C-alpha cells in the first residue's frame, strides 16, 4: 500500500488595535471585535490584579462597559482576578481555574476569553483558552509596555513547569489584540522602562533607523513621555508582527531569529528567582551578547558603545551579579533544548545586521560578563 | 494609530505509511521516518498495554529494534506502558507522566515521542507532546482499526476533563503516522469489528462506491479477513485525509462535516460509562441519524434498509437502551458547545449525499430511537 502524503494548511487573521480608554462606554473597539464574529457572544474576563488600582475602578468600569454593550457581549461571570508576574505561570491552579470557568459558563469555540494584563497573565490565560475545547477565542488587552510591543502580539501561550520557563504551551494566534495606551499609566517606573528592552532588541536585529529614533527619544521615554512610548510600541509591534508572518511562526526550525539576547535573559530570570523583570533580563542579555560580539571582533567598538549607552539612557540595567556565575552558562543548553535542534544564537555584526552562530566560546562569554560589571557609566574596554 | 492586520500562515506535511511488522529489524519505515529529520534523534515510547500481549513480546521487540537502529534512534528511556481505552484520557496522571519524561529525558522539539496504541492512547500522548515545549514531534503507530482508519490520522489531540470527552486538547499534526496491519492481530473480535463504523460513516457522506464495496465485503470483514480490512482502512484513510486537507482542519467554523452520527455517539459513550466502544457508539449514532433522516422524509426506505443492514452485517450494534432516555438529547447542546457556534448536524439525503441541519425535532428523534429497538433483524417501519 502506497504512502499517503498529507498536507495541512491553515491561515489565521487577527487585528492589533491601538486605542485609549478601552472600557469607556463610548469606545467601541472591544464591542466591534466581538460583533465581528457575527452574533452576540459569551465572554469571561481574566484580569491581572495589577490593573485593578483603586483610583481606576477597573472592575466596575469593565462591568459597566459590558452592560452598556450587552446586545453584543454576554458577560456571563464575574471577572477572574489573578496575580500578575511569573507567579501566575508557576502555579497550576490558575490554569485550572480558568478552564473550570470555561466549563462552568459554557464558553465554546465561538465564545471569548478576554485577558487583561501583563505578559504573564496573557500567557497563562492564553494557554488555558488554547487547550479548552481545542481552542476558545482569546482577546488580549496587554497592560504593560512589554506585552503591548512584544509578548502580547504573538502566537505563543505558556505556563512554567519543572522550574522551566514556558515548558508547557502552544502556538495559538489570538482572535484580536487591543493595545490601550492608558492601561500603561499605572505602571511603576521600573515596569515602564523595562518594556523598552524588546524594542531595542528588535531595532538592533532589524531596523537601524528605529534604533536611531530610540537613541533620540531615550530621555523622553525614560521620563514617561506617553507620545514617545506610543510611537515606540507601534513600530516595535509592526516589526514583531512582520517577523511572525514572514518567518516560521510555529518555530519548527532550529533558529529563533527574534530571540536575540534571550538565552541569558531566560537564565537570569530563573537565577534571580524572577526578581529581575523580563525586560531588565533582556536588556542585560542584549548587553552580554553585544559585548561578546565586540570582544570576539565582529562588532565595532563604536557600535558597542552606542548600544550600551542607549540601554543605560533608557534606565535599563546592563549587568547583574548572576552574570558572573558558572550557572549562567547552563542557559545555553537549556535554550537549545527548549527550541530543539542545533544550538543557535544571534550575535551582531553591526546595528541592524545580526548573524547566527552555533558555538560559543565560554571563556570569552565570561570575560564579557566581567566587562559589563564595569560598564556603568560606559567605559572603553581597550 | 492605525490597526495592524496580521496574517499567520502555516503548512504541515506528514506521511501516512502502511506496513507490516514495523519492529522487525529489517523494516526500515520507523528508522527512515526518524532519519528524515536529518540527524540521530532522541525518542521515548508510550505504549498501550493492549499491544503488549505475552505471545508478541512487544517491548522486547521494540528495544531490539531501537538497538539495531541506534545510529539513528537514541532510545533514552524504558517504554512508558499505559492502560488503553478512555481510562488513559480520564486520569490526569498519564499526561503528567509523559510530560515528566519529556523533561527528564531532554526530549526537545526535534526529538520524538512515539505513541503505539489505540485512539485513546494516541490522543493522550499527542496532547502531552503537543503541549510540551509548545510541541515535540509525535509519531503515531495506531494499533486498532479505528485508530488506523480515522482517529490516528488527523490533527487532534485530547484528554477528558469535567466528565466531558476531549474537553482539553489541541490541533497538532503528527510528524508521521505508521499503520502496521499486524498490530491489529491481537484485537478482540469486538474491537476488530467496531473499527469499521467510521468507514461506513465516511462512505455514507463522501463515497457511494466505497459504501458498495463495504456492502460486498461485509461478511469477509466480519470474519477477520486481513486483506479486506487493509483495503477498507486504506480507502477510509484516504477519504479522511482528503477531508482534513481540503476543509477547515482546525475547525474554526461551526460545522464538522465528518462528524456524522457523532452527537449521539459521544453521549452514548458517556451514558454507558464508556462500556460501548467508540466504534459501536458511532454505529448506533449513524443508525439513529439515518433513521431520523428516513422518518423525516428526506432519505428513502430502500437506502435506510441498506445502511442498517450493512451495519448489522459488519457485526455492529444499531441500538442501545440508553438511546431511549431523555438524557440522550442532552448530547445535542453538548455537541454544539464543544464545537461552538450554531448547532449543526448532518443528515442523509442519499447514500453519499449528506445535508446540514440546524434544528432537530426531538419527538421524531425519540421515535427514531424506538424504531431502532426493533431493528435487529432489519424490519420495515411502515
3D structure, described in words:
Two copies of one chain form a homodimer. In chain A, the strands form three sheets. In chain A, strands 1, 2, 3, 4, 5, 6 and 9 form a seven-stranded parallel beta sheet that branches. Chain A has a two-stranded antiparallel ribbon with strand order 7-8. The relative contact order of chain A is 0.10. In chain A, 44% of the residues lie in helices and 19% in strands. With 382 residues, chain A is α/β, with parallel strands linked by helices. The termini of chain A are far apart. Chains A and B meet through β1, α4, β7, β8 and α10 of A and β1, α4, β7, β8 and α10 of B.
What is this entry, summarized?
The first copy, chain A, has 382 residues and is an alpha/beta fold. Chain A is built from 15 helices and eleven strands.
Core attributes:
homodimer, 382 residues, alpha/beta, seven-stranded parallel sheet, two-stranded antiparallel ribbon, 11 strands, 19% strand, globular
